[in-house]
Amino acid sequence: MLITRLSARRLPDGWCAALPVVRHLAERGVPLTAPVTFLVGDNGSGKSTLMEAIADVGGINAEGGKAGTKYAGTGPATPLGEVLDADLTVTGGRLLHGPRLKRRAFFFRAETLVNLARGVLTKEGKGFWADDLTTQSHGEGFVTVLDYMLDGPGLYLLDEPEAALSFQSCLRLAGLMHRVAGEGGQVVCATHSPILTALPGAQIVELGDHGARTGEWAKLPLVDDWRRFLARPDLYMRHIVDDDP
Length: 245
Ligand SMILES: Nc1ncnc2c1ncn2[C@@H]1O[C@H](COP(=O)(O)OP(=O)(O)OP(=O)(O)O)[C@@H](O)[C@H]1O
Ligand SMILES: [Mg+2]
Hints:
Elements: E1 3-8, H1 20-27, E2 30-31, E3 36-40, H2 47-57, E4 65-66, H3 79-83, E5 84-88, H4 90-97, E6 105-109, H5 113-124, H6 138-149, E7 154-159, H7 167-182, E8 185-190, E9 203-208, E10 211-215, H8 221-231, H9 233-240
Parallel strand pairs: 3-8, 3-9, 6-7, 7-8
Antiparallel strand pairs: 1-2, 1-5, 4-6, 9-10
């Protein structure tokens, strides 16, 4: 583990002070109790806001990237990042705030993967990754980057990595997370995926109007929704498809 608890020193300035999860961070904090933590919750519940702030604390550009490179940020890019405190283990201090070349933190966000890959390709003159991302499909590119980056002790922040992934690729990603956790890495992943969140031993933190609380996979609304939908898709579609002229 690198980070064992997140909290906010005070409420940040601006819009994000109104988010329940941000108030929760300021009032009570959120412990991280396992090497893999999933942040779940409705659209707009604050998952990405928190992920970006953790990236700030980890010294990674909130746009996505790798710590200790030119893609690393120069300062807090988000209002929450300015006030977020992370309780670090000794390993966490070394890997996040130690000598620049020893830092190990990566922020993977679906939206910025393409820019990141292009930037790295330009810088190196050839592919940073073994396979050239420009010749791969969307999902193949994701898997290539994840395969390459999830490796060894370090902090891995993933914001909805399932966006381009098939069922099988999601299972593979869950396996990568498990492997990297065993290697001393820590993963924090915002997701809507019932597959990823089923990873045994992972901590699930539900964000919502209540703030933040520990959740149990079988009781998550996202799992329940899928279960009900797959059992009776026709019932859901009856409300969506209007046959009347
Ligand atoms: N720069 C900004 N200015 C104002 N409001 C913002 C800004 N960024 C995010 N918000 C608001 O903060 C809330 C939380 O957004 P956030 O992106 O963290 O949600 P999320 O949980 O990641 O949602 P999703 O599941 O859709 O990715 C949203 O209501 C959003 O509109
Ligand atoms: Mg988001």
